[in-house]
Amino acid sequence: MIIVLNSGVWAAPRGPAGTLRRSPDRQQPPRGTSPTGSSPNPGRATRGSASRPSPASSSPPPPTTTARPTTTVTTTTTTRRTYASSSDLPDGGPVPITGLGTFHEVPGSSPGVGTGVVPTYAVEVEDGVVHDEPGFAAFVQETLSDPRGWTARGDVAFRRVTGPATPRIRLTSQDTARAVCGYRIPVDVSCRDGGLVHLSAARWVRGAVAFDGDLESYRRYVVNHEVGHALGEGHRPCPEHGALAPVMMQQTFGTANDEVAAITEGVPQDVAIPSDGKVCRPNGWPFP
């Protein structure tokens, strides 16, 4: 997707190259059964046949022992599973699957950061999505204000407001994100749609396989990636084997060019992804 910054307002035509659409893995992680320890029952004392001791015998009777119950302690370890594709939705906490399709603003403001035209942005959460709303808004604000973010480009500035703003950055339920971002490629994704940035709540909760459980870094990535589209940035492949992935690489799909090319095959993108064997390291920042 290409976005043109004009007098502080972001607007751009929709296009199939904006973001990829994926289907959320609705399977919730299998519920584990809690193993319990076992305590053997103490054995019953049995009466032996009594015999009168010989007067010549002075040996004391054998000591009586009482069987003590034992406790078995069982620990459960989580084994990391192997995913069929790096685009799979990782296992994790409950995903906000459905919402009402309407959004409410999370109040807050920030001073302007960066240089150049200062577009304002607002943060919203879909009605019906249960999440830490102040925490979500604070994370978005912190990410966009970080010196490793888009302000380092030299011509970008941000200021968060309550009220009219473009873009409006939204935490969006799994089903609504699929409807807005598309589902032609069956993978959960986020997207930029005109002046709206939809961040998939499924990905916000679970992250991406390529980030190997580093949820914070993935969240930095998805905020910067989608806002990057709002700034006119397009997708990029891994440029050099072993390098940090460009933030505009489709890292929700993976950080290997071969895999991203295979996943997006047949679905037009804004850049050709070469199948050249290059694999990058996950990265959430435009200017790390």
Total strand segments: 9
**Poorly predicted regions:** 1-58, 63-79
- Seen as an oligomer or otherwise, the chain set is single chain
**Helix content bin:** 10-25%
Q: What is the CATH C level class of one domain, in words?
A: Alpha Beta
**CA-atom Rg in angstroms:** 29 Å
Q: What is the helix tally?
A: 5
Structure overview:
The protein has 288 residues and is of the alpha/beta class. The chain has a domain at 84-235: Collagenase (Catalytic Domain), CATH 3.40.390. The protein contains five helices and nine strands. The strands form two sheets. Strands 3, 4, 5, 6, 7, 8 and 9 form a seven-stranded mixed β-sheet that branches. It has a two-stranded antiparallel ribbon with strand order 1-2. A hairpin with a 2-residue loop joins strand 1 (4-6) and strand 2 (9-11). The radius of gyration is 29 Å and the shape is globular. The relative contact order is 0.19. Residues 1-58 and 63-79 have low confidence and may be disordered.
Notable traits:
disordered N terminus; Collagenase (Catalytic Domain); alpha/beta; 12% strand; 288 residues; 7-stranded mixed sheet; two-stranded antiparallel ribbon; single chain
Please outline the helices and strands:
Layout: E1 4-6, E2 9-11, E3 103-105, E4 113-114, E5 120-126, H1 133-145, E6 157-160, E7 168-172, H2 174-181, E8 191-193, E9 196-200, H3 201-206, H4 215-230, H5 257-263
Parallel strand pairs: 5-6, 5-7, 7-9
Antiparallel strand pairs: 1-2, 3-5, 4-6, 8-9
